[in-house]
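Task card 7
Instruction: Convert sequence to structure tokens.
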Amino acid sequence: MLVSVLFFCFVVGVFSQEFRLTRKITERIIEQQLGSHDQAFESEDGQADNAPVARRLEHALPLTDLQIIFSLEISVGTPPVNFSVIPDTGSDVLWLPDANCSNCNRIWTRYNSSLSSSSVDLKHSHKMKYGDQTQVNGPMYTDTVCMSESICVEKQALMSTINYTDPQSTGGDPHIEGIMGLMPGTGGGSPTIMQMLHRTNPGLGQEFSLVLPRHPLDSYLILGRADLKKHARQEKYQYGTNEFIATYNNMFAGWRTTVRAAGLAGRDDGSWLWWKDWKYQDGAAALVDSGSSDIVLDTDTYKDVTKAVTTAFENIGKSCQDSGHENKILICFCDDETFDRLPVFSLSIMSVNIREFSASSQFTICIGAQEYLSKNGGGTCRVRFQDSEGRLPTPGGSQYESLLLGLPIFHGHVVGYDIDNSRIGFARGKFHSLPEKYKCPDPRGSDFSYLQLGIFGIVGCGLLYVAMITVWKKSCGKLLLKLRLAREERETAERQVELSAMRYEQQERFLRRFEQGGHTIAEDDCRGAEIEMVE
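Output:
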């Protein structure tokens, strides 16, 4: 038994060491592969001497905060016509309203291909459907698109929308005249704006960032490498895994990362009002979407979150009610003192591999109530969580759950998109509502790395061995003591038998000797002889 226990301890120790080394090697390889892009631009002063100057400096394009969404001014065609578009990381097509668009907002600026000398008809059409059920379709063209005086793309594919349909039948926001998809996908069968941008402007590098704080702070779409010292409290991004990005036939399937767990916790005491762990589903695919005003959750999760938010408001003497909106928006009564008394929303994001559940493979980000609430006026706030009602795409099959991380996450973080390595980075912004040194509550359950498992295995084996020795001493020790006492009693009895036999033999010899001499032995003589023999 002892040999078996020792052998088990040896095997557990060896395998835990092998797993630990394997994990370290894997993480090092991943860091080298995914981090080579970062290291190429870093030296002792934070910039490599041989890096192109344009890549070292950010090219910041100012955005307009429209309260629920952000817009970018671009110019299209020759001569150029200005349009206000949404920079959307959740899609890959640039579309503008056509001169003959039906159901488009009447005050929108229209794209007229016949008035642009640089416009070329691609002779095919395209259609798009967004998560809010907005649908657009129209013919595809190429034309010159400029984001600033120095950043232009020639022969950029775009869709001239002739049919526009939105669920509210409003014809669209009057301040938004199109959407510019920032995903490096198919772009309606042609290269996307980001792909063309980096082909024609290689000095920018294959990356961009979004700085989207709450009003009235300035917001930017940053082309190239962002200067995090200017915008964030961290000098480097924390990158999430790209497990769900290239899903469909190795094609770019969306700017997604993997969320391990989420929760609502007390801002001061960290007590959990609600939390959910996707550990046993290999994480949840999270679309990080700058074109969505809210955080979108599956129906069950949405119900749990809104219930926890309602409870948090009730705990501070406030109430909430359903707005009656199609997406079940929650409206709560609030004031300026409300925000600091409400819980924080935390996310644990996988950073290496969704099947490597250890502390080093995950990081936590969080936002405060100022990020996930927006004031409506009249002493009410809109809770910026939505029910997906089954409309969120699920990459990798139905075994994975999905969620969408919209503008509330951007309101607290600089979000970086690394096209080269298909990954998303997060850095807490200087504009974050929570204190600079605030530590985000971690919504994960219990995690054990292979090293921890090995340590617990060895300690467990040691304790088992000690317990066995203790039991052996208490039970087997008593048995041995009884056996020793029994052996001593047997030896004493054997000596007494031998002594009695010797006495009897001596008496017999004495009697025969006297009887042979013709003597009569009296009783007193026998007693004396016995005494003599004993002596």
